[in-house]
Specification:
With 224 residues, the chain is an alpha/beta fold. It contains five helices and eleven strands; from the N terminus they run E-H-E-H-E-E-E-H-E-H-E-E-E-H-E-E. It has a single domain, classed as Vaccinia Virus protein VP39 (Rossmann fold, 3-Layer(aba) Sandwich), CATH 3.40.50. 23% of the residues lie in helices and 29% in strands. Strand 2, helix 2 and strand 3 form a beta-alpha-beta unit. The radius of gyration is 16 Å and the shape is globular. The structure holds S-adenosylmethionine.
Length: 224
């Protein structure tokens, strides 16, 4: 898998703004590539904010979430489907957007979900990654999360996170898997991705580091 990093000039005042500005930068870049189609699936869309932003860049989003509690009444031109992401058929989509979701899944489901990203599609990923230097120890300890316990499973390594009981958490699994940086790249490579671009530096969220990655299983990015 070819790997590189890009560093857009984003100076946002908050984590939320950093996320939306980074997503806007990615959407703008993908929009300029005429080989990338406009059908976009936003998996684990929650309040569908990112799907709505995607509309501004000419994409046609379908937002998917297992819960409807946070879906706004007025979705504009976003289509919403209530479904477990593991059952959703991504095969007709050009862009798979997976933001704040991957790390809520078990390792086994992450492998399956990455395998389901179509060969012709672009993946836009924002996920928690276990950078040991970025772990927020107090918040993590308060959650009963043993941040030092990096375990190996198959070809992967990461930490096991206890999922909460809240509208942002996992739908079925009591624990989820947070990859180390190398393990996340192994996941992508083994799922068949041939190019992965890290967008920006890792940023810090409540429990630790997160990263933005844009990846594809065929072709090459010309506008990022
Ligand atoms: C942390 S929120 C992220 C929301 C949004 N993508 C964002 O980045 O702001 C995770 C979302 O994924 C949904 N979710 C978790 N596991 C899911 C599953 N297996 N199938 C469908 N939705 C799931 C939750 O209901 C929640 O809305």
């Amino acid at each position: 898998m070819k790997e590189r990093s890009v560093f857009p000039n984003i100076n946002a005042p908050s984590e939320g703004r950093h996320r939306t500005e980074t997503f806007r930068w990615i959407m703008e870049s993908l929009k300029r590539d005429p080989t990338i189609g406009k059908k976009l699936a936003d998996l684990g869309a929650g309040p569908c904010l990112f799907a709505q932003i995607a509309c501004e860049y000419g994409f046609e989003p379908t937002a998917v979430d297992g819960r409807i509690a946070r879906v706004p009444e007025n979705l504009g031109s976003v289509t919403f489907i209530q479904s477990n992401v593991m059952d959703f058929n991504q095969s007709t989509f050009d862009v798979s957007v997976i933001l704040g979701l991957l790390y809520h899944l078990t390792l086994e489901d992450q492998i399956k979900l990455m395998g389901k990203v179509p060969k012709t599609a672009v993946l836009v990923l924002d996920t928690q990654v276990h950078h040991s230097s970025l772990v927020q120890h107090d918040a993590s300890a308060a959650r009963g999360f043993d941040t030092g316990n990096v375990v190996k499973k198959k070809n992967y390594e990461g930490v096991i996170f206890p999922e909460g009981d809240n509208p942002m958490a996992s739908i079925e699994n009591p624990t989820s898997w947070w990859h180390t940086p190398n393990s996340l790249r192994t996941l992508l490579r083994e799922a068949g991705f041939v190019e992965a671009i890290t967008v920006g530096e890792p940023y810090v969220s409540k429990y630790g580091g997160r990263e933005w990655i844009v990846a594809r299983k065929a072709g090459t990015f010309s506008t990022i």
